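Note to self: keep these together.
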Amino acid sequence: MSEAIGFSVDLSGFTKAMNALPEETLKATRIAVKEGLTLLVKEARTEYDSKIRHHEKEGHKVERCIQQRLLDDFTGAVFLNLKDCPYAEFIHEGTHDHMVPKEGHEWGLGTTKGGNPAALHWVSGGKSFFSKGHKVSGIEKDQFLYRAAEKNENKIIDIVEKQIDQAIKRAGF
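Structure:
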């Protein structure tokens, strides 16, 4: 799951500002990227509809796994932390109908401490029964990261342009 979303802004005075005040101008771009990332994380968390996510438990919320990282002075990333939420990718990208084996999902949802899948074990008439697996419906994709980026493209451009304009003014252009 990786998609770059880019945009362009008018940088006519940016080169002059970089030559006149390189540190100030780089600081302005870092601020712009951080503000844009923060906006995207907030909006992606809003776009994600947790009300329909019946399998999430406290401490396993996809919203908490939407994170940001500054990659360099001009680039940042908003991403799903799959280490903390391995199932987040399946929610974002969707899945097909599939079989859940007796051992359960690889990320451990629906299992008890002993590793026996809780949803695949039942008691009837005093006897324990264990399923060999079951078929589950696929998950419809919910691409909340992309929706947030698309909906906020103009706001992000405004943030970048504002910071660059301020850097250009500080450089005297």
